[in-house]
Specification:
343 residues; alpha/beta; eight-stranded mixed sheet; three-stranded antiparallel sheet; 9 helices
């Protein structure tokens, strides 16, 4: 156990958690929605600080982050738990285990060990991913500060349910985020995630408008649930109008998973409708994921159409950016450390 961050003492020894938009009021001996923060004797503790359940090296493009240190490697870590309860979760074995099976498994790794492993594997950043990084903020913060000292960047792959105070706290070590915008209705979030759309929109606005954290957005398109032309247009419009036309939008293909087996894989035509909605909204960088060979993984210059980064899956085959500018017309290319690397 590890004493938790971002909470206050309430009446009758309640702990008022300020980590995410659930803002749980946790009574003594009880846990929050995430099932990994517990009130013990009037003090809130993190139960997963010493339980790293997944660790490995990935291309940063797998996060997906296409405009953040492209072509480099992420040292990825996760602990069990999540503050969402998505019935289509792609990583349900670790995200939902503390809730469904009442277990938190993993091995203790110190922040020093994690950062050293990242350096030994020649990674450029540490990615807090696979499960929701918000709910292991204590470990992420300790790793993140040490990583910064060693020249490593830090990224969250998140559902976007952090409070403003959690975002401000994380901004002290966080360099990039990919946030899921799963749908654009409160009904979807209440029914399938046990959360709220407005909480996610608040986070997205705050990151884009009030921090220097690089932001990319992902939407998993699920047939019959969030794939109408109207909803796709609303998502694309929100990104363009409130976050910025330079924010990359990753449109991801759904595959049946966890409790939602009845919805088929997303048709390619649906993904193209989403891509066209992004184009109509004026987004500069739109990508289609989980559809190998689709041809929509390349980064194009929004001004002249020159192929800036040519990708095959997660592998970069060509790089036509120099000092943050298109080598075709000189237009600026949005991103974080978009300098060329050797392939």
């Amino acid at each position: 156990m590890h004493k938790a961050l971002l909470w206050q003492t309430g009446e009758n020894e309640e702990c008022l958690c300020g980590l995410c938009h659930h803002r749980c009021r946790i009574r003594p001996d009880q846990k929050g929605v995430c099932q990994v923060r517990q009130n013990i004797g009037g003090t809130l503790y993190s139960l997963n600080y010493d339980s790293v359940c997944s660790m490995g090296v990935d291309p940063v493009e797998k996060k997906p982050l296409f405009h953040f240190q492209p072509g480099r490697k992420s040292f990825s870590i996760a602990t069990m738990g999540c503050n969402f309860q998505c019935d289509f979760c792609q990583n349900w074995q670790i995200s939902q285990a503390p809730r469904s099976e009442k277990r938190i498994e993993g091995r203790p790794y110190t922040p020093e060990q994690i950062v050293r492993s990242a350096l030994e594997h020649h990674c450029s950043n540490i990615a807090y991913t696979y499960s929701e990084p918000t709910i292991f903020m204590e470990l992420a913060a300790d790793c993140g500060r040490l990583a910064r000292q060693e020249g490593l960047a830090n990224v969250f792959v998140s559902n976007g349910y952090m409070t403003e105070e959690a975002l401000e706290y994380a901004s002290g070590f966080l360099d990039g985020m990919n946030i899921d915008l799963k749908a654009f209705t409160e009904e979807f979030y209440r029914t399938y995630c046990k959360a709220t759309l407005e909480g996610v929109l608040k986070t997205l606005r705050h990151v884009a408008q009030q921090t220097h954290i690089w932001l990319e957005v992902t939407t998993l398109i699920i047939p019959g649930l969030n794939d109408s032309d109207d909803e796709l247009g609303q998502i694309a419009g929100f990104i363009a109008e409130e976050l910025g036309v330079h924010i990359p939008w990753h449109i991801s293909r759904y595959h049946p998973m966890y409790h939602r087996q009845e919805n088929p894989p997303t048709p390619a035509q649906t993904l193209m409708r989403a891509w066209e909605a992004g184009q109509k909204a004026g987004l500069r960088y739109i990508y289609i994921g989980n559809l190998p060979g689709c041809g929509y993984e390349n980064t194009l210059c929004y001004q002249c159409g020159h192929v800036l980064i040519r990708r095959q899956g997660y592998q970069i085959q060509d790089f036509q950016i120099l000092k943050g500018k298109c080598m075709g017309c000189g237009a600026d290319v949005s991103g974080y450390e978009m300098d060329p690397v050797r392939f």
